[in-house]
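pasting for ref
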Amino acid sequence: MAQKILIVDDDPDVVLALRMPLESAGYEVQDAHSQASGLEAVDEFQPDLIILDVMMDTHTAGFQFAQKLHGPAAKPEHKRIPILMVTAVHQTTPLRFGPDEDYLPVDGFIDKPIDPDMLLEEVARLLEARTAQ
């Protein structure tokens, strides 16, 4: 059975750019375009990994999404799902951030534009780490 990946990003072009290499590599992919629809999809689709944008319906939607899934009040089954955060913030602003257990509880971080090979390597690394737990 193919591993399932949920892409939560409001830009259809980015979703397509992520979906193509993932499906070519044999992953089952579903997408959501907002924080709310992404949270619903987590319970319905039960992904093995989530690829998450930072800015969607609000500038901090990705941060809030990560907190809901991996923060102190998160469901235990959600905390086991690795989150790979992708963003163009580092390309367009002087802001710099990365995974942080308290503020940004994600498992990996890559910048847009996404290199397909780097994406597949990071997805495989995170899925392997999840399996090893």
